Amino acid sequence: MEKEKEFYARIEAKSVSRRDFMKFCTFLTATMGLSAAYVSKVAQVFAAPSQRPPVIWLHFAECTGCSEATLRAMFPWIDELLLEVLSMEYHETIMAAAGRQAEEQLHAAVEKYKGKFICVCEGAVATKYDGGYGKIGGRTFLEIAKEVCPQAAAVVCIGQCSAFGGIQAAAPNLGGWKGVGEVLGIKTINIAGCPPNPINFVGTIVNYLLFGKLPAVDDLGRPLFAYGKTVHDQCPRRSHFENEEFVEEFGSPEAAMGYCLYKVGCRGPETYNNCPIAKFNDGTSWPVEAGHPCLGCSEPQFWDKMTPFYEPL
Amino acid sequence: MGKRITIDPITRIEGHLRIEVEVEGGKVVNAWSSGTLFRGIEVILQGRDPRDAHHFVQRSCGVCTYVHALASVRAVDDAVGIKMPVNARLIRNLLHGAQYQHDHIVHFYHLHALDWVDIVSALKADPAKTAALADNTSNAPWGGRQYFKNVQVRLQTFVDSGQLGPFANAYWGHSAYKLPPEANLMAAAHYIEALRIQAKAARLHAIFGGKNPHPQSLVVGGVTSVADLVPDRIAEFLYITKETHDFVKNVYIPDLLAVASFYKEWGGIGGCTNFLTYGDFPASEQEPESFYMPRGVIRKRDLANIEMADQQKVTEDVTRAWYLKSAPKHPFEGETRPIPENPKFSPEKGKYSWVKAPRYDGLPCEVGPLARVLVAYGKGHADIKPLVDSTLKQLDIPASALFSTLGRTAARGLETVAIGEVMQGWVTELVENLKSGDTKTYQPYEMPQTAQGVGLNDVPRGALGHWIRIENGKIGNYQYVVPSTWNLGPRDGGGNLSPVEEALIGTPVADPQKPLEVLRTVHSFDPCLACAIHVIDPHSNEVYKIRVV
User: Fold this and answer.
1) Assigned CATH for A49-226
2) Which one, out of A173, A308, B129, B392, has a CA that is 20 to 30 A from the CA of B203?
3) Would you call B252 an interface residue with chain A, using a CB distance cutoff of 8 Å?
């Protein structure tokens, strides 16, 4: 309780009001599909984690877009995630140590938190040529994944690449790239998207802190609270679809009127994600609001299965 | 034979980079730069719909998001023959400017600062003295003894927890750290503030692009964000860009100058010889003449004779890269194939990187903020020249000190000021154009059966070129030569070092176990390796005449 008071004093000192903070918790609780009774419990998770849960974040074949997406987290701000909520033991994009010292840190963290850390994977793993198309410190991604992931309490795959192989696994897939779960033959939590909305990553972590377990998932390992419905079913342009009011060319009067993008290639009907509800960057917008069809980026192999993007389903 | 040091992974960058240096007598005498991941995006593009290319290539990099999508649609626009609507040009410029604002702040504070700032030393600072220092150096909106005390308590609590997270096992206490504890505390506080500023600045992309990273409103022919061309959205954009610009002027630049004043010797370390820019930010259809940041080539540091850059003179060499043998070729005639095996790292005489070695007229060229600022400075740019001159005066260093690690890091900050300023004018221009009744955002087109095009850009990390050839309405060939390929490639067949390899030679190394100084120069290039390694063109041998965008 004392710690909780301190927490509120601290966020207020940083001109984040208690009200704003509770607003975030309400939003997150709603995104996670929990009842309103959980709002105060979600607040407690951020206010007073007894020990910050250790996270080891591995980078394989990726573009770092998923790390960047996570950096955009607001309420809790990314600095709070890093300094007060989680213990980011290893993350190549932000860590101060490099080279030998970075490798030492990885080994030390795996050793210290064996069976207790959350392993977040960003990027695909190469399987051809002994995994030779991707290496860190002279070791292949394959070796690193095999060594680190099985020692984690849970493996969370953030983004299309670690979940399903991603862009490098698109035909002809020169390096034999695959998602982490498939390579290791393990079940992973898949925060799908290219990149995913950070709210879905944070929601998954909160679930873990709140209930001590990871959220319920679909048969592709995607948390149901975020990926339980299609984009189409939640789309604010849905009534235009029902009324057969379609955009047939960008820049047309129909585009200006915000008609349905189905005929210019929208993949919303086949894509499970919460983009229309959660929106991106503090609820600022999402692709359909920006007038662009959904690409289907939270579906496996979308680079092959959803293309050409501008042709209707 | 000196002592060999390997740094792998290089952290606080995008992608997977290995740097090896040889140290003799406390200085780097030889260096090798190696990219250790190959994804092959250009192969994946073969045979696909040219309209889709920008979505694929945008996934080259999530840190320098947007820029590859822009270069790609420009290349296809060029092939198709689009006359770009004014609104689309302005929105593309605004999204691109927003990327500069965001990216350079993140680089300075989150990827580069810890090479100069000792976070642990900040714990020893006197918060009152820190407040006085901050008052004297910056115009930050936050400050005062209590503010810095809170930051210090927060850091102390973090350290006391024993869970040091991103700050664990670093080079704290290294003799090359020169800042007093108070300056370290000020920088640490701003590191945290900048984490929030960047999250807010990323909303600029969401306003006209739907989301960030990987905005999704570009299409060949224009932009799709028509519903966002309304007063409240435009006002929101203007507000955030100004707020970000205020941070750049009032915090980033003062911090840069404060830190630089303790590290002036780095004005004599880490320089390169030749520089290339394609230029960017068109003010009209006249390209490159109307670019805000100009196009040019500087040979042997000669600022008095800046040439116009000609993309026909670009070649790529794979002698020392993990591709099958080939002579140096222009991007349109490459025949590069990755070796079909687990690559061996052979820096001495053999191949040692997935990054190719691009050359301009046979010369390795540095690209990026320093190249852009030098070209603009040499040409007497109305905004850049005074910024550079006042910085040199304030730091009391000569113009020759620009050719250095310090110059590179300073140039990045200075161009962020210039671009942030001019962005506000583009917003006004957009409003005026809409008021005049022009709401056009898109130019319809027919996809030709056969065509080719080029998109040349200057993006936060440097000169970026995309080349596309369309055959039977599909992608027959796609090539891109990106900034980190220029800056962080390997040697070429003639043994010429890449810019980062050249820059590292002469760098002092106080403790070979803790090569902090090497990181300074490597990070000053803002390496972005995922996009540097993608290059492949398995079957084209022909030379094509191409129009420069």
Assistant:
1) 3.40.50.700
2) A308
3) no
CB B503 within 8 A of CB B369: no
Q: Which of B34, B333, B528, B534 is catalytic?
A: B528
Q: State the architecture of A229-305 in CATH terms.
A: Irregular (4.10)
Would you call B390 a catalytic residue per the annotation? no
Task: Answer yes or no: B429 catalytic.
Answer: no
B531 counts as catalytic: yes
Residues of B in contact with A285 (CB under 8 A): 206-207, 209-211, 228
Contact A79 B192 (CB under 8 A): yes
Among B44, B63, B211, beta carbon nearest to A171: B44
Nearest by Cα to A170 from B540, B39, B18, B469: B39
Q: Cβ distance B521 to B269 under 8 Å?
A: yes
Q: Is B272 among the catalytic positions?
A: no
Binary contact (A66, B62; C-beta < 8 A): yes
CA distance A49 to B11: 28
Could you state, in order of their start, the residue ranges of all structural domains in chain A?
49-226, 229-305
Q: Do A250 and B210 touch (CB under 8 A)?
A: no
Taken in order B207, B211, B213, B216, the sign of the CA dihedral is negative
Residue B380 region, left (φ>0) first, then alpha (ψ -120 to 50), else beta? left
Q: Which helix (H) or strand (E) holds B456?
A: strand B451-459
Residue of chain B minimizing CA distance to A284 = B206
- Whole-angstrom CA distances from A120 to A117, A215, B166 are 9, 15, 15
B461 is an active site residue: yes
Q: For chain A, positions 92-151, list CB contacts with chain B under 8 A.
A: 92-105, 108, 129-138, 140
Is B436 part of the annotated catalytic residue set? no
CB contact (8 A) between residue B166 and residue A13: no
Query: Tokens standing for B415?
Result: 């161009």
Per CB-CB distance under 8 Å, the chain A contacts of B447 are none
Q: Which residues of B touch A168 (CB under 8 A)?
A: 39-41, 44
Which two tokens mark A27?
Answer: 């939003």
Residue B14 is among the residues annotated as catalytic for this protein: yes
SS3 at position B89: helix
Q: Which residues contact A205 (CB under 8 A, 6 or more apart)?
A: A53, A85, A86, A118, A156
Q: Which of residues 274-293 of A touch B (CB under 8 A)?
A: 280-282, 284-292
For B95-138, list the strands marked E by DSSP: none
Buried b (16+ CB within 10 A) or exposed e, A245-262: ebbeebbeebbeebbbbb
In whole angstroms, what is the distance from residue B244 CA to residue B377 CA? 25
Nearest residue to B411 via CA among B540, B234, B293: B293
Instruction: Determine whether B36 is exposed, middle or buried from the number of CB atoms within 10 Å of its CB (0-12, 13-18, 19+).
Output: buried
pTM for this predicted structure: 0.94
- The string of DSSP codes covering A29-90 is HHHTT--GGGHHHHHHHHH--SSPPEEEEEE-BS-SHHHHHHHT-TTTTHHHIIIII-EEEE
Backbone angles phi, psi at B298, to 5 degrees: -115, 125
Closest C-alpha to B317, from B308, B309, B326, B304 = B326
Contact B119 A310 (CB under 8 A): no
pLDDT tens, per residue, chain A with 313 residues: 455 566 566 556 555 566 666 776 777 777 766 666 666 666 666 655 567 889 999 999 999 999 999 999 886 889 988 998 899 999 999 999 999 999 999 999 999 999 999 999 999 999 999 999 999 999 999 999 999 999 999 999 999 999 999 999 999 999 999 999 999 999 999 999 999 999 999 999 888 888 888 899 999 999 999 999 999 999 999 999 999 999 999 999 999 999 999 999 999 999 999 999 999 999 999 999 999 999 999 999 999 999 999 999 9
